[in-house]
Write a structure and sequence with these properties.
The chain contains 5 helices and no strands. Helix content is about 50%, strand content about 0%. The radius of gyration is 32 Å and the shape is rod-shaped. InterPro entries: CCDC148/CCDC112. Keywords: Coiled coil.
Length: about 100
């Protein structure tokens, strides 16, 4: 029985279906490995800069006054724009 096939050098040197499938699996595994494990729910730059406590602290820091007694007294008294959630308050030292 003789093999009847045409000479096709491009087809001869190209990837086979099996090698293409294996390369696709490797690419997919690499993509999955690069995905982050968890989604991050964070604040953007505008939200952080809009906090008056941060702006005041930055002004004190630029003036070189962030380690003074005045800063230590005033910074805790500045309230946030929104009150913190009740579940974020620590009760470990309350008896």
């Amino acid at each position: 029985v003789a093999v009847v096939a045409q000479f096709d050098p491009v087809r001869m040197m190209s990837d086979t279906m099996a090698s293409k499938a294996r390369m696709a699996v490797e690419i997919e595994e690499e993509f999955i490995l690069q995905k982050p494990l968890f989604t991050l729910n964070t604040y953007n730059e505008q939200q952080i800069i809009s906090d008056p406590r941060l702006r005041f602290e930055l002004a004190l820091r630029e003036a070189g006054l962030h380690k003074t007694l005045y800063a230590k007294e005033v910074l805790p008294k500045i309230s946030p724009q929104k009150p913190p959630r009740r579940d974020m308050e620590s009760t470990i030292f309350k008896i």
